[in-house]
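Quick start: read one record
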Amino acid sequence: MTQKTSRRSFLGASAALGTAFWVAPRTFARPTRSALEGLTAACIGVGGKGSSDSSHISDQDVAIVGICDVDRRTLAKKAKEFSDAEQFTDFREMLDKLGDKVDIVTVSTPDHTHATAAIKAMKMKKHVYCQKPMTWSIREARMMREVAAEMGVVTQMGNQGTSEDGLREAVEVIRSGAIGDVAEIHVWTNRPVWPQGIGRPAGEDAIPDYLDWDSWIGPAAMRPYKEGVYHSFNWRGWADFGTGALGDMACHTTNMPVMALELWDPIAVTAVENPGIFENETFPGSTTLMFEFPERNGKVACKFYWYDGGNLPSDDLIAHLPEDFRKRIDSQKAGGKKTSAALVVGSKGMLLSENDYGAAYSLLPSDNYKDFKKPEQSLPRIPFKGGTDERQKWEFVQSCRGEYKPGTMSNFGYAGRLTETILVGNLAVRAGEGQRIEWDAKNLVSTNLPGLNKYVQREYREGWTL
């Protein structure tokens, strides 16, 4: 079927996944504006990652009809590329005004505004591409996948490694039992690469005339503007706006083992090493977290360890890694460049990915896998040839058109569960070092530390809703 004859034959890509294996989503159909019209998009956040997000969507023959950014300098720059697009600094105004003129909405803003933008768009029956992590809070992630399933729209989170053949193959390898039963996963990252472990600066600066500060703050509590402190990049370290190193990278680096092993709904999380939220303002410079998962669908109970800020697994584990990678870790310990990796430890062997996206892997010890034959393919491969990010957008747009039948793999049904799992870790950061949080995933509450439950979802500032 062509775009002209099936402009909106939709795939509801956001049904929640309750099994170990990714499954193709249900098909939905809705009335069209015109069977002869092509897809259109409105883009929220068009600087930084949002610049490539909007460009890549446009490259898939989607007309960009609206662009929104709180920074008018960024808008002016992007308007040179999309000269016909209407410009806005408040996405609420953009969505209300453009309404039925829009099919797709991209959300590429700081974490704290993802949910309010995406949920508004989905309730208007727009397909949504949202950057990772899907949300700032745990309950927002639950709401995002529920609304997506209810509205039957196509969705995709921006953890683009999901589109890589290597990640999908690694998932198949682990599921095949090639490394045996997995009881431990270790993931470490070179993040943060922005300030953390600092307090709020005193005073305030004049808000530049190019910046819509009220829209930037969004649903968070209002605070004074300080030049270069929050906008446009360092927000990731601030607990009111970002989700720290864990939120920034875990949707990438844990994606492969989470998908392979159904690492949903931890029963407990402990911050093994944790200086804590600094003055209730920023995430600490480094953390080590331990997530506990029970037996699930025949898989043994396991523990997942997360390390950031230069923290690493034990030397006993590192000793099993390839020599060239051990040398890089030795360099890191001596003050050199930090490393990142995911190590999945099984009863028969290990799978190591030194790629942030899980897009490449090796089986260890290598001598034991010289004659290894890859398992039969069970996950679809994206036929589009291009960069990782472009492949993710191709899968999304072609699913919106109804022309890619497998549908999006990182749809909000999957990505919502991944995000929920990850963000429980930030509750542990708030709890204090060594404090074990017992977690009721069904009801999204800590059963032993109820004081943490106020962080499961924030109270939105007046004028901002879900």
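Confidence is low (pLDDT under 50) at residues 1-36.
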